[in-house]
Amino acid sequence: MQTPWEYRYAHRASKMGSSVIRELLKLTDQPDIISFAGGLPAPEVFPVKKFQEACNYVLENLGAKALQYGATEGYTPLREMIARHTGRYSVQVTADNIMITSGSQQALDFIGRLFLNRGDYIVVESPTYLGALQAWNAYGPQYISVPSDENGMVVDELEDALRIGPKFIYVLPNFQNPSGTTLSLERRKKLVEIADRYGVPIIEDDPYGQLRYDGDHLPSVVSLDSEYRNESNGQYSGNVIYMSTFSKLLAPGLRLAWVIAPPEVIRRLVMTKQAADLHTSTFNQIVAHEVAKGGFLDEHVKVIRATYKERRDVMLETMDEIWPSEVRWTRPEGGMFLWGILPEKMDAAELFKSAIEKKVAFVPGAAFHPTGGGHNTMRINFSYTDPDATREGITRLGLLLREEVFKDAKKKYLYD
Amino acid sequence: MQTPWEYRYAHRASKMGSSVIRELLKLTDQPDIISFAGGLPAPEVFPVKKFQEACNYVLENLGAKALQYGATEGYTPLREMIARHTGRYSVQVTADNIMITSGSQQALDFIGRLFLNRGDYIVVESPTYLGALQAWNAYGPQYISVPSDENGMVVDELEDALRIGPKFIYVLPNFQNPSGTTLSLERRKKLVEIADRYGVPIIEDDPYGQLRYDGDHLPSVVSLDSEYRNESNGQYSGNVIYMSTFSKLLAPGLRLAWVIAPPEVIRRLVMTKQAADLHTSTFNQIVAHEVAKGGFLDEHVKVIRATYKERRDVMLETMDEIWPSEVRWTRPEGGMFLWGILPEKMDAAELFKSAIEKKVAFVPGAAFHPTGGGHNTMRINFSYTDPDATREGITRLGLLLREEVFKDAKKKYLYD
Question: The domain that contains A89 carries what CATH number?
Fold first, then answer.
């Protein structure tokens, strides 16, 4: 007889769906489509040679260690290196503040698993990162959206949300995915103060912080929180759980990211990880440490910045030149994405279908809005596509937009 | 003010504890202790040179792919290779039956996440694998223990357990961790039949199947299930979720394992993994494929078998020679562990303390019994320690056991 699998799954399985983006990517993964839909780093900037040297060094000198089981919290020299790196940005942390995860997605999942009961509230920006929603949905939370503008989350509207009693606040302060906007310094400070007043932790997701192409670096929320508390014992014990990743600085195929949190939270996250996958690949951690030590990433990030800056500039220039004035878009100071806002009457999901016919793709923005809205928004990636293809693809999109806006105007005329 | 973290955690966090073994390992991780407590492969058998060649080949020829994001279900050539390998053992499967995970621990966690509601019953062998209990405890299940003997789970007692209505049955048929016993062919067949009759899926955990040192290979439960169903379309769609790993054949530091299941279950597991960590390291998968293709693992596994067989033999010889007849132990035909059973009156946790003083360690067995019992049992690893140290450590343990058994006998005399 057949196993009745459909009746065997847990309640939470009904909350699990495939990511809208991953499903879209299957449509757009054809060689003749110029796709701005993904969120991939440019493979041209992967430091393959350096990585190969590191693999050889590690296998010749640390082979038995690199191929063996390792500690759940991560490879100590790597954690210490991250602690020193973090210290340069004015948060004093020790290795006890740091756990290595298999990509930031795993950190998001663990935070959900550690904190969320069914029905708990989470405060998010609107729009917000889809991967976080996907990680958390299995735990059955409810979302409270706080609106964003060109300076990130409108923190003035946060207090009402906190009075609902959420488990935590989720923010991506730098070059947000999907919107490309950056939370202003003033708002960061206010966020730290309000969150502290209500005793609600902040989850700071910062995959792109190092990828700034214009303007000045802004202090992270975790560093402002540390400052606000006047911490002086060299260890962080505040209100923020911070996460960042090697995916954008080195290579996503390694699945290496890290969490910074008070040691008591790290201890809980370590127990979570022990049950979930024992530890992150020892080999990848030791190789990443070997690649990164001695300041290589400081140099390498300049190459990445130059590459992505050029692509962003080409994209913005082409948009300025060709896109109709009825469409608005953000001008990110860094990161990998910009955000388009169509006239209210237009539907980005419809536009997506026409775009695919013209062999160009983006992500319609509705999915980034867990409490609804955003039907007229679109996420556009600028890191993956080279400048010539970017110009071509953005031109195609622009011509399509002109048509659609014109149709829209005609419609208005017909029915008014 | 300080964040009240203690009041922020989810209910399930109270079910998460650090593994007893991992805590023990901290005690035993001193260079002068001969430890049979861990479950580590011998680093001497890691194919470091081969691995280095594969890294170089992959980075020179497939660098951009290996360092980029990859598919959640895993690297297709690796899944196809596993399908061919599985086919050799008489279960016809396709790549759609296979998902790659970051170690078997992750597969256990995903199975818990996909299937378990709080309070669900799981049938386990007694004793059973601690990592599975740790993975599942966060989901709040209840355990039903079926006793085991030298031929594995006493399947005759399974039917009563199935009438309780469990979500699934968990078995480790080959050289079980912790007991070292192997489920007999007759019992395997009966297990398949009874599970089918009650519609209860079987989770078959098989990390050591290839590590057989004596006797004949027995068909896996999944292959017997496929046979029982007379499947003929080349794809498995039965009642078993099977898992195995590269940790014991290649190296655990890579964190590479795989699940075989009906395609509809694989699709659900892929959604689970997408939310949990996107995918397993692309680089590690491509390198493992490069190492394994062309039959290398078939040759390499012979080296592993020879090494572990020698260690097991030295251990058993020393036990036969020195250990008192009041203590019993299993004689595993493969794997990495054997199981000691002390006289009922003795406590293995007490013995552990005395053993540490003699600079030798093992794992007291109580933790492997989720429904209680096993205070007089012990798990002893034979894969990690070299033959000389094994002889020395097992001798020390034997002398200690003689003392304890003698004390025990004296006590009886005093109070009788």
Answer: 3.40.640.10
